[in-house]
């Protein structure tokens, strides 16, 4: 397949499945266009296009339909796997964040594309995103540090905890779900940091976020926070 945006869009449209469209629409705004297709087919197309130039990835982000933009996020993730810490990928993601319109676009790309370049460095960028009035930018702030769980130092993880502390009481489900997911996974690696965090913040966190955060802790500890 040619690694141009137009070729990727044509390939995605060739895989349209009307039966999938209602499932896709559940994650979209009412007026957001979509092709309707199986996600595994979308991931396959994106993997085949992983070598496309960044200017073509940006053209995918300009597309109105959900699937080409999701494919662009997948391509960025595939590129980041091959070039961890490539700031050109992060810069494109952040510059075109307005075209990232669903939580799954964030979750697909943010850890490797935004998080990986920050390992061993400053997380001020994530604090800036955490202050955004736009919920999906705040979700990026909470999701990018998931990369630290697997590949960062304890100092990196502490930086991730500091970012999600700024979002702990966020009322938006798309944000506090991401907070809970980060805490759940980070807590497996540094359980004392999780306990300390929850001692400070659990009382003001949305209950859904707390329940996510303690999913993997000992039941006796879990009861301290969720009853």
TrEMBL record:
Record's signal peptide: none
A Pfam family matched in the record: DNA_alkylation
Entry-linked PANTHER family: ARMADILLO-TYPE FOLD (PTHR34070), DNA ALKYLATION REPAIR PROTEIN (PTHR34070:SF1)
Protein name as annotated: DNA alkylation repair protein
Organism: Auraticoccus cholistanensis
